[in-house]
Write a structure and sequence with these properties.
Layout lengths: L2 H29 L1 H9 L1
């Protein structure tokens, strides 16, 4: 089993998950103005 290939796949999966999570957060904040107000305090 090629180790570099495994790391490449893992990196791609983590990258895609982080992008999806970021987009999900942006969409939920835009849909809910109250959430964006509480997010600014953090």
């Amino acid at each position: 089993m090629n180790l570099s290939l495994v790391f490449q796949v893992l990196f791609t999966v983590v990258f895609v998950l982080s992008v999806v999570l970021a987009l999900y957060c942006v969409f939920t904040i835009h849909k809910n103005p109250h959430v964006s107000q509480t997010e600014k305090h953090c």
